[in-house]
Specification:
Elements (H helix, E strand, L loop, with lengths): L2 E6 L6 H10 L4 E3 H7 L6 H10 L12 H8 L3 H28 L4 E5 L14 E6 L2 H12 L3 H9 L4 H7 L2 E4 L4 H21 L1
The structure holds dephospho coenzyme A and adenosine-5'-triphosphate.
């Protein structure tokens, strides 16, 4: 049987860093952000729906979504963010379930669902265990500003658009402390991998 892990945290706390380790172990990973990108590719019905809702300006000359502009809009306006979530989340969830069930049928012992908004979207029923990757707020802010080249104010708005990491830690079945080096984070992944293999066997 498969052990389905919901990997979450908050923006820039280190989910992709953890995913990198599990991918080396050939663990299949379903990436909600990636699915969100695929369903708005040019020609897909969701892109037309976004254009109808947010206006022509969110489409670039080459026909693709202007992700930077849409980010600006939704992280500065709670109502617009809700509108976007209501439009996109059902389609993202449907695709996540299809891919998860495919891997379960294949008999994969561990399947990771990398879903930034797992708690906010009330999606814990999709998984057997929840793994929360956390950092201090200061580290999160510093890494987010650096990675996305954002001002402190912009980065703080993005962090505020998601639920509290402290609450998520309390609700998690497993946690990874990503405050120190990447190597130390990888050691924690290694320990969890053994647990997850036996969780898969015991189901
Ligand atoms: C707003 C968009 C266009 C920005 O694209 P961009 O390439 O700049 O960022 P990317 O997609 O890599 O997202 C980066 C991070 O932003 C955070 N984030 C994205 N959307 C949201 C949202 N609606 N609410 C809160 N946080 C969000 C997540 O932590 C995500 O990991 C894009 O994130 C999007 O389409 N969001 C809506 C879909 C969604 O909710 N995705 C989150 C996973 S379900
Ligand atoms: N232990 C670490 N030490 C130093 N830098 C780190 C560490 N872990 C992650 N980073 C860096 O912090 C940034 C955020 O990490 P990562 O992309 O893994 O977060 P994420 O949770 O996947 O982000 P998002 O929510 O946007 O998808 C990246 O630039 C990454 O290289």
């Amino acid at each position: 049987m498969s052990c389905v892990i919901g990997l979450t945290g908050s923006i820039a706390t280190g989910k992709s860093t953890v995913v990198d380790w599990f991918k080396i172990k050939q663990v299949p990973v379903i990436d909600a952000d990636q699915i969100a990108r695929e369903i708005v590719e040019p020609g897909r019905p969701m892109l037309s729906r976004l254009k109808e809702t947010f206006g022509e300006m969110i489409i670039q000359k080459d026909g693709s979504l202007d992700r930077a502009l849409l980010s600006q809009l939704i992280f500065n306006d709670e109502t617009l963010r809700q509108t976007l979530d209501n439009l996109m989340h059902p389609a993202i969830i449907e695709e996540i379930i299809t891919r998860r069930d495919h891997y379960i049928e294949q008999g994969e012992p561990i399947i990771i669902l990398d879903i930034p908004l797992l708690f906010e979207g009330d999606l814990t029923d999709l998984v057997d265990r929840v793994l929360v990757v956390y950092t201090t707020q200061a580290k999160q802010l510093q890494r987010l500003m650096k990675r996305n080249d954002l001002s402190e104010q912009e980065a703080k708005k993005r962090i505020k658009a998601q639920g509290s990491i402290e609450k998520k830690k309390q609700l998690a079945t497993d946690v990874i402390d990503n405050n120190r080096s990447v190597e130390e984070t990888y050691l924690q992944c290694d320990a969890l991998y053994d647990n997850y293999m036996s969780c898969g066997e015991n189901q």
